[in-house]
Amino acid sequence: MMENLPPCPKCSCEYTYEMNSLVVCPECAHEWDPESGAESEGAVAERVVKDAVGNVLQDGDTVVVVKTLKVKGSPTGIKAGTKVRNIRLIDGVDGHDIDCKVEGFGAMQLKSGVVKKG
């Protein structure tokens, strides 16, 4: 019965499950009907992505990394204070909701909780 259920529109949790005609998120308890209200609910309650200090982020913003991040295959990682320009907000996997290019590392996804609007 697990037929590619959508991730939670509120917290992006991928472990959603069906309950009658609704889809339920086990992490934030959000319930929604994927059949009827996906577009109308999305228009009313558009997803808001906030940075580490609570500022609302938008596509095209410039952000600053607030803590040093480890990167697979890199001996140094991304240092705190690194500027990332022209971000794009996405429904990523495992909480990664920013798609961007980090200078010296290339394209990657970051979590909004490790950046600050700058």
Give me the secondary-structure topology.
Layout lengths: L16 E3 L2 E3 L6 E2 L5 H7 L4 E2 L5 E2 L5 E3 L17 E2 L3 E2 L6 E7 L3 E6 L3 E3 L1
Antiparallel strand pairs: 1-2, 2-3, 4-5, 6-7, 6-11, 8-9, 9-10
The radius of gyration is 16 Å
Count of alpha/pi helices:
1
Largest sheet: 3 strands, antiparallel
User: Mean pLDDT, nearest integer?
Assistant: 84
The termini sit apart by 45 Å
Q: How many strand units? A: 11
Please trace the helix and strand order, writing H or E for each element. Answer: EEEHEEEEEEEE
Helix content: under 10%
* pLDDT < 50 runs, ≥5 residues: 38-44
Structural class: mainly beta
**Oligomerization state:** single chain
Shape: elongated
* Strand percent estimate: 25-35%
- Placed side by side, the strands forming the largest sheet appear as 1-2-3
Domain Protein YjdM N-terminal: 5-33
Pfam families: YjdM, Zn_Ribbon_YjdM
Family: Belongs to the YjdM family.
Protein name: Zinc ribbon domain-containing protein YjdM
Note down, in words, how this protein is organized.
- With 118 residues, the protein is mainly beta.
- It has one helix and eleven strands, in the order βββαββββββββ.
- It is elongated.
Labels describing this entry:
118 residues, mainly beta, three-stranded antiparallel beta sheet, 1 helix
